[in-house]
């Protein structure tokens, strides 16, 4: 028996109020406005090891809110191709407060970052290894795990940021030594780089590693995840607070999906809002009955397909959630103008799936489908985030 119109309207009103409650609860959740922005870092060889030094800025964009920073800790993690368990580190964090002098004993005194103000810290890490070891050749990359406390009207929150500092960098590709692969009416060159991070400027990376081999008519591609990490679009799951909606709804996704965990789905909710995610799931479920697949991902937005959960990327980003890149089309047009060749941001896997997220004007996307279907960049630790495609 069909529902009376009045009952249907009541149910629709209740559903609308539920969505409104979800959105308001989401938008009013505790949050700190502070942002940690890494500056330049450098690694120097010392008589008995290495010294890493650099600065970070803590910025408060809020016009009135004052936020305390009572603690900050940094744990360096070393990556290489050999056993590094005997490497020892000594970390010193020196406050760079604009109105206070740093204590000589190295103690971080709790500091208040006022509205639209900032503070900072200088970081120095001395590294020592076993006698006679050359740390510069053993350590490939240093990952700085930064844990810092935010304290204010929102309560006490722990933020966790990761800063990747490369120690070794491969030689750029050159015309004489380039090893091209033959493709379908094209040639393909995977371009090796160092492990990329937030300290890297994308144009400098593209110019350094591919500039010597570029020719008119080429198409230079970059993976969507390497671009995203250079843009700083990753975060540790410990900074994500799953809601009841994400804990329940994540169970309906396939176990291999990045949305099948509470933190993965909550990351999407934090971007597009709980109302859109819930409506996308309801509509997507209805579309499944009509044998229309992929409805949720089309309705929930582009980031629903692009989020990589823990283990979804190469170390050390395998410990984080990585979002899709920001404004990829504008990035492609800007890089193409600077380099003089077409540029594309792509997502490729070992199953032959090629998705061109964005490309510069005039880019031959059909050429990219042919060239990238064998996945020349790989999905392991090849460190070839750039692939140069040249029509035959």
Please tell me the total number of domains: 3
Structural class: alpha+beta
Order of helices and strands: HEEEEEEEHEEEEHEHEHHHHHEHEEHE
CATH class bucket of the largest domain: Mainly Beta
Summarize the main sheet.
6 strands, mixed
Would you identify the regions where 5 or more consecutive residues have pLDDT less than 50?
none
**Count the strands?**
17
Percentage of residues in strands: 25-35%
CATH architecture assignment of the largest domain:
Sandwich
Q: Can you walk through the features of this model?
A:
- This protein is an alpha+beta fold and 392 residues long.
- The protein has 3 domains: 35-166, Immunoglobulin-like (Sandwich), CATH 2.60.40; 181-232 and 324-391, 2-Layer Sandwich (60s Ribosomal Protein L30, Chain: A); 234-322, no CATH class.
- Helix content is 27%, strand content 31%.
- It is built from 11 helices and 17 strands.
- Strands 10-11-17-12-15-16 form a 6-stranded mixed beta sheet.
- A hairpin with a 2-residue loop joins strand 10 and strand 11 (186-191).
- Helix 6 packs across helix 7.
- The radius of gyration is 24 Å and the shape is flat.
- The mean pLDDT is 93.
